[in-house]
Design brief:
The chain is mainly β. It has strands at 2-11, 19-22, 35-41, 45-46, 52-60, 66-72, 79-83, 89-90, 99-103, 107-112, 115-123, 133-141. It is elongated. Mean pLDDT is 82; it is low at 1-24.
Length: 145
C-alpha cells in the first residue's frame, strides 16, 4: 500500500522543537484504519547546513503487523523513500530490530506490531534561504497482515 506523507518546516535559525504532520490512514474491510502513518521531524525550523532527523512512524492496529526490510518466508518489505527539495541530502533510513512471527505452515516472518519508526538524517544546503517553508515528504509502501 503506497502512501504519500508530508511535513513542512521553515528555514530559520531558531525554534528547533518537534514538528509533525499526520496523514495516510488506509482502511480495512470494516472501514477502520489498520495503519496510520505520519512524517515527523525533530525540528520545527531548519538551519542552513545543519543536519536534522526525519522519521516516518507507522502505527499498526492491534492484531495486525507490517513487515521488515527482510520479511522472511512470506510478506513484502516495508519501503520508505524521502522526497526533499533540491540541494538537500539524506542518509538511508534506519529500521529498528524486528520481531519474529511464527505463522501457520512453518512460515517465519519478520516485522513490527504496534508502532514502527524509521529515521533518516537530512542535511539542508549551506546556502538555504531563511524564512521559506521547506517541504519534506515521504512515500511509504507496506503490507499489513
Amino acid at each position: 500500500m503506497t502512501r504519500h506523507l508530508f511535513a513542512c518546516v521553515t528555514a530559520a535559525f531558531l525554534g528547533l522543537t518537534a514538528a509533525q504532520s499526520a496523514v495516510a490512514k488506509p482502511a480495512g474491510p470494516d472501514g477502520n484504519a489498520l495503519v496510520t502513518a505520519a512524517v515527523v521531524a525533530d525540528v520545527a525550523a531548519v538551519a542552513p547546513g545543519k543536519p536534522f532527523r526525519v522519521g516516518v512512524r507507522l502505527t499498526v492496529s492491534p492484531g495486525w503487523h507490517v513487515y521488515w526490510q527482510n520479511p522472511g518466508d512470506a510478506g513484502l518489505p516495508t519501503v520508505v523513500e524521502l522526497r526533499l527539495p533540491p540541494g538537500f541530502a539524506h542518509k538511508p533510513f534506519g529500521f529498528p530490530t524486528p520481531v519474529r512471527f511464527d505463522q501457520p505452515g512453518d512460515v517465519v516472518g519478520f516485522g513490527y506490531e504496534g508502532e514502527l519508526m524509521v529515521v533518516a538524517e537530512v542535511t539542508p544546503p549551506a546556502d538555504l534561504p531563511l524564512g521559506r517553508p521547506v517541504r519534506v515528504s515521504a512515500e511509504a509502501d507496506w503490507l499489513v497482515c
